[in-house]
Amino acid sequence: MHYGLSKVSAMKLASDYAIANHNNVPESWIKNNATVKVWFCGFLKRNTQLSLRTHEAISLSRATSFNRKNVKDFFHNLREVSENYNFEPQNIYNCDETGCTTVQMFPKVVAGK
Asked: pTM value?
């Protein structure tokens, strides 16, 4: 699974790639070992299929709980409840926890739109 590149990592990758391929790069790229923000803004304008996005954080417990057995059990229980109580579609609600965050926040990464 790939989590994307941060803005700084993408700029460093571009700089390393250009230098490794002996492209004509500004001296500051070599000295600072990275591209500059102006180049990055131009890069995003030239590559409209990319943008800076913040990916969704997920807790470790939630990530490890999403497995074949738990999903199978969930749908088995859902079917059982649906058959036992015959809920009408207008009486089914999506309710989830709110308020307390238990996951870390991540920086924006370069990703496809």
From this structure: 0.47
* pLDDT, tens digit only, all 113 positions of the chain: 456 788 888 888 888 888 889 888 888 777 776 677 888 889 999 999 998 887 777 777 877 888 899 999 999 998 999 889 988 888 887 776 665 566 667 777 777 77
DSSP SS3 for 77: helix
Burial zone of 10 (CB within 10 Å; 0-12 exposed, 13-18 middle, 19+ buried)? buried
- Token output for 13: 């990758």
Q: From the CB of residue 5, how many other CB atoms can be counted at a distance below 10 Å? A: 15
For 26, the token pair is 């500004």
Which residues does 28 contact at the CB level (< 8 Å), separation at least 6? 36
Tokens of 69: 């057995």
H helices within 21-107, ranges in order?
27-32, 37-46, 60-65, 68-85
DSSP-derived 3-state class of residue 48: coil
